[in-house]
Amino acid sequence: MEQFPPRYFTPREVSAHARPGDLWVSYLGRVCDLSPLVRRHKGDVLLRPILEAAGKDISHWFNPKTRDIQTHVDPLTGCVKYYTPQGRFIHIPPQLPRSDWANDFGLPWWKDSKYEVGILASKTRRVRIINTLTLQEHVLEVCAEESMWEILRRYLPHNAHAASYTWKYNGVNLDMDKTLEQNKIPDEDAEFYRLNLDADLYTPGILLYFNDDLTEF
């Protein structure tokens, strides 16, 4: 298994980055680290809406079809303008022409891929990882799109030798290149919801069997 950065993030993970020096947001399925933008414009009043949105999903700021900021017809000018009820923010032009408005910044931050750090999970799942050697059990929140290798990476803080184990569900070896669903570990949240039951009462368990080596990442 090669070292690689995470591709998917849970909303909980995004919400952990909610400070001016460490500021993430998510929108339209993307996760972006706006910390460099905040540092570059430190002290600018136009940062306020971004600072207030730290760690949150701001998809409602955008038109999902154009993937640009929402627009409306400005009642003062009759022109189509960006719609920012949360307040004008960095790279949004002023309502009326101004001599101090510099538009030579290139791409606005929401179109600049350099801020993107990953993908927001479309859904999260809880799984129990049970080490049959030590009998330790940990519950992880994972992204439904993640492969078993990516779930293993999430488990490493609990067991640095996690790759030295065979991972099984219902007695069947798991394909580490596939997701939980592809490994026939069903997501039954909808069924539990239909039955008015707490899905957390049943969390699928993955059993780890030691392979007698000490692979460490």
Automatic annotation (TrEMBL):
<comment type="similarity">
    <text>Belongs to the cytochrome b5 family.</text>
</comment>
<keyword id="KW-0966">Cell projection</keyword>
<dbReference type="GO" id="GO:0003341">
    <property type="term" value="P:cilium movement"/>
</dbReference>
<dbReference type="InterPro" id="IPR001199">
    <property type="entry name" value="Cyt_B5-like_heme/steroid-bd"/>
</dbReference>
<comment type="function">
    <text>Radial spoke stalk protein that binds heme under oxidizing conditions. Required for the coordinated beating of multiple cilia maybe by functioning in a redox signaling pathway.</text>
</comment>
<feature type="domain" description="Cytochrome b5 heme-binding">
    <location>
        <begin position="6"/>
        <end position="72"/>
    </location>
</feature>
<dbReference type="GO" id="GO:0046872">
    <property type="term" value="F:metal ion binding"/>
</dbReference>
<keyword id="KW-0479">Metal-binding</keyword>
<keyword id="KW-0408">Iron</keyword>
<dbReference type="Pfam" id="PF00173">
    <property type="entry name" value="Cyt-b5"/>
</dbReference>
<keyword id="KW-0349">Heme</keyword>
<dbReference type="GO" id="GO:0005930">
    <property type="term" value="C:axoneme"/>
</dbReference>
<dbReference type="InterPro" id="IPR036400">
    <property type="entry name" value="Cyt_B5-like_heme/steroid_sf"/>
</dbReference>
<keyword id="KW-0206">Cytoskeleton</keyword>
<dbReference type="InterPro" id="IPR052320">
    <property type="entry name" value="Cytochrome_b5_domain"/>
</dbReference>
<keyword id="KW-0963">Cytoplasm</keyword>
<protein>
    <recommendedName>
        <fullName>Cytochrome b5 domain-containing protein 1</fullName>
    </recommendedName>
</protein>
